[in-house]
Amino acid sequence: MRKFIRSIALFIPFAIVIYIVFTLIWGLFIPQKLNKNLNYRIGTYGHMFTRLHEAKNVREVDFLVLGSSHAYRGFDPRVFSQHGLVLFNLGSSNQTPIQSEILLKRFLKTMQPSRVIIEVNPFYFANDGVESSVDIIANSRNDLLSIKMALTINNQKTYNTLIYGLFRDLVGLNKSYVEKEIKSEDTYITGGYVERQHETLQWKPTILESQAPNEKQTNAFSNIILMLHEMKIPLLLVQSPITQELYKTYENRVQFDQEMRQSSTYINFNLEPALNDTLHFYDPEHMNQKGVEIFNQQLIFILQDSVLNGYNVQPEKAAQKAR
Amino acid sequence: MLFNSIDFAIFLPIVFLLYWFVTQKNLSLQNSLIVASSYLFYGWWDWRFLSLILFSTLVDFLVGMHLEKQENATRRRVLLWISILINLGFLGFFKYYNFFLDNFVSIFSLFGAKFNASSLQIILPVGISFYTFQTLSYTIDVYKRKLPATTNFIAFAAFVSFFPQLVAGPIERATNLLPQFYKKRGFSYDKATDGLRQILWGLFKKVVIADNCAEFANTIFENSADASGSTLLLGAIFFTFQIYGDFSGYSDIAIGTARLFGFNLMQNFAFPYFSRNMAEFWRRWHISLSTWFRDYLYIPIGGSKVGTWKKIRNTLIIFIVSGFWHGANWTFIVWGALNALYIIPIMLAKKNRNYLNIVAKDRILPSISDFFRIVSTFALTVFAWIFFRATSLEHAINYISGIFSKSIISIPDFQNMGSALVTLLLIFGFMAVEWNGRRDQFAIQNIANIHSRPARWILYSLIIFIIGMYMQTYETPFIYFQF
Q1: How confident is the model at residue B99 (pLDDT cuts 50, 70, 90)?
Q2: Could A23 and B465 be called an inter-chain contact, meaning their C-beta atoms sit closer than 8 Å?
Q3: Band (B479; pLDDT cuts 50, 70, 90)
Q4: CA-to-CA dists, residue B391 to B16, B242, B387, B480, angstroms
Q5: Which one, A229, B82, B224, B269, has least CB within 10 Å?
Q6: Contact A307/B at CB under 8 A
Q7: Using one digit for the tens of pLDDT, what is the confidence trace for A76-88?
Q8: Contact B448/A at CB under 8 A
Q9: How many CB pairs under 8 A join A and B?
């Protein structure tokens, strides 16, 4: 028995080392298509590399935006700057509260935003967060927060990508990488925004996946509320416009709105739509540039005109609930 | 509790340490630990059904004791039937009530009669088909005086509920497993490491092969109406490997886990996809169930030592019952009947005892004739699995007619086709390892023969790495849990 326990105790570190070595070999030499659970894609969809690179040098903004592609494709800093407001967009593909929390912890102190805006929708809470976690791991320098994120998500794909990501950071393989500003139809705009050159709606909504909230995500969201409350930074939750055709397929719209209102100040732009499904979207989830401009002007009007107070809830109460 | 879950990864070492360090000196305590941990393992799904296992255990324990004492043949038969009716009664209610009710209503409605019978919302207790058959084997063996009845309730409860094989087999015979609970188990290093090897291989089969194949098989079967013939064929092949990886993977983990605790369970799969005819396939597929039906159904009704027509009848009965055992759906019955139709000509030609040896035993590759036999047997198996996987007979027939259409000559096309290529590569590698290890109890058992420890450990680590790199990242239950 002693021999058996000793062998197991020796084998575990041995296997870990071999696992890491093979992960590095796979990451370096095996084509991405053949790596099911290692998804290290630097500089791909959503310009995350450039956004995070730029974020390091950004100081004192009026608004810091977080959320999924609805965020980085829906809040244009140029529209805000026309009103003398500085906005930085930290949205990322399929971002969930787990990633929002990590990004806030990384950038909140340096950016010192007057207000944080989080773009919320049922999928922000329902998503497992794996795709967004590997996006952040591949496109930023990893730290203890990345490890914490991986442990929270607890998914093999995130672990493998993190192992490989830490290795690349250590060796400095990404140092010389420069991401293209224009990729296919997407153009990166300073301030974290991605503009897409599409005029009309391209496709119909498909069958929706589950919208049931994930417990890990609601916990992370509570942490965000608590953190912002402690730092006395107001939080605005925004559900940005999507096509009405898609919005009507959301099963738990009313309940979701109620929950968001209980969490913080919340505006749902889908309740009284100012946009037209055909004219202002390029796909069911994303506005075209015309749609973004109308939506952003509307939001700025609300923010500047103190109309926001009409939407307000008691942040103290929300923070207490988060505790 | 699923074998492929974090819960089990925590549960197993705890029970292992308690078993060998705390309860080792007291056999009764050790058996009690097995009972307690098995009930915890089962109760993790639904503790309410623990009462069923406990009741079955009590009934068969008492019936066994009375059978032992009773000399009167009629009374002994009555006791046997009490056990059979109670056990099969539970199985019948939970598994087949709605099936019989629906078919009963359908038949009467054909004659214009109306019935107001509504189906019940019955939850099928996990593993009921497995432990029911296991306890029945005990009662029947005691009845036949093949085995003395036990007076040790704890040992008997441990035999019925032994967690490694409680929910999906192998369906152990009382004559093999029960006596192992009577005597002290000594720890064997070789046995334990062999058990770990088998667990590792079982895990690979389940989370890499079965779960990846499931993704594509499910997509194709669920969208079969729009798929081309070649896509449908590929879907059937994916399911063929899914079910093998899933079920034999479970068996490997069960057998390996039992070995960690000093028990020997029977081999349940012996490389069935290398069979050279369907008779050989059925000697190698789900061996514990096939031999159960052979011993407790086929032989009692006459087996093969009867006239031709009775032989055909007996074969049909055993395969149809076996199909029905898998689930309350006509698809399983047709699957069973189809396999009987495969076997009957082989039996009539008296070739069912051919190929008792291991294929290409002293060769690296099979002969050309063996290769074609393997491929044709595999093709028949794939065809039969379509009925097993389809949701209804109509679905199966449409699926098959879809395969035999002009679009069979086209490139398969479905969602995630690109990542299906990775799975095909994994299947290819998996079958190569299985072929290499076909002479052993499980494919990677021969790693033990490699003299160099670092080389062995690198191979284990490589398997762990492939699991980590190619596993499905969400927990999927084993297919056979539904049976």
Answers
A1: confident
A2: yes
A3: confident
A4: 40, 16, 8, 16
A5: B82
A6: no
A7: 999 999 988 899 9
A8: no
A9: 62
pTM of the shown model: 0.87
Most confident segment among A206-210, B371-375, B417-421: B371-375
- C-beta of residue A241 within 8 angstroms of C-beta of residue A291: yes
pLDDT in tens, B276-318: 999 999 999 999 999 999 999 998 888 878 888 898 999 999 9
B326 given a catalytic annotation: yes
- The residue-averaged pLDDT of A207-215 equals 70
Q: Which helix (H) or strand (E) holds B422?
A: helix B417-436
CA B308 – CA A274 distance, rounded (Å) = 81
pLDDT at A205: 57
Output the six-digit token pair for B217: 């098989």
Domain architecture of chain A: domains with CATH: 11-322 (3.40.50.1110)
ipTM exceeding cut-off 0.95 for this assembly? no
In the β-sheet with A265-268, what is the strand arrangement from edge to edge? A87-89, A63-66, A115-119, A235-239, A265-268
Please state the three-class secondary structure of B265-288 as a single string.
Answer: CCCCCCCHHHCCCHHHHHHHCCHH
Contact present, A160 and A23 (Cβ < 8 Å): yes
Contacts of B473 in chain A (CB under 8 A): 37, 130, 155-157
Instruction: Give yes or no for B410 touching A (CB within 8 A).
Output: no
Range B388-412 burial, b when 16+ CB lie within 10 A, else e: bbbeeeebbeebbebbeeebeeeeb
